[in-house]
Amino acid sequence: MASLKALKIRIGSVKSTQKITKAMKMVAAAKLRRAQSNAEQGRPYSQRLSDVVASLASRITVGPQSPKLIAGTGADQRHLIVVASSDRGLAGAFNTNIVRAVRRQAEELVAQGKDVSFYVVGRKSRPVLTRFFGANRIVGQYDTSEMKNPTYADAQAVAAEVMRRFETGEFDVAHLAYSNFRSVLAQEPTVEQIIPVKPRAANDVGVPAASAAVEYEPDEEDILAALLPRNVAIQIYRAMLENQAGFYGSQMTAMDNATRNAGDMINRLSIQYNRQRQAAITTELVEIISGAEAL
Fold first, then answer.
1. Among its keywords, does the record have Ion transport (predicted)?
2. I need a surface site. Which of 232, 245, 253, 285 has the fewest CB within 10 A?
3. What number of other Cβ atoms are within 10 A of residue 82's Cβ?
4. Do residues 235 and 198 lie in contact, with contact meaning Cβ atoms separated by under 8 Å?
């Protein structure tokens, strides 16, 4: 009977867990709709701005007067990776996949003899990066624990800190790592260079063709000087929006799987409970019948 009592308690415990995972799945699904809409609405502007900046950058000859965000420092030794992750777990492999992509990029750079450091946005990536690369490689962190939805002001704050470090010569190249939201079941970890801007050829995919005669007022370098800081902030903002949608999509999937697994466990435990209960009842009946025959 003690075994039956233990099984009953365990079944009740799993049912309570199932209620929690089911509720978390519903909350994640509700939040996902808004996060996905925000991410999709932010893509056209960020992509177009990136294309315009890249197109303008391909038109100028880099020199001493060129904006530093496109000219760079003249070196390629020190790399900063801005890692955007979440503050919470229970989202499957969402954060793990981002960190895995960052590790792969960092290890490739280290193998080339480069110096690599990290600036983290969201706290989930920090422990893993610290374990593999050391705490001294984490040069800064932007706290998102109180942030319900990413805002452009948050992205501007991160961009301002990154650009300040660039201006003071702390690094030569900056990369942005985040999870590109594709669907509820698919999030693509992405690492892309944001400083300095990479000029693209006019025939690259997504870049406007330069065959038409266009005159800029003011000139390209003045326009770039105004657009480049905004572009850094916009790309970081897009990464934060993509991350939020990816997090809720991954969490919804993880909680759905957890709910299904809890249901399977409840079924198995219920079968085991019913079998033991039936065996106990049968044993009691046999004892009663044997006692009656003995009389």
1. yes
2. 285
3. 27
4. no
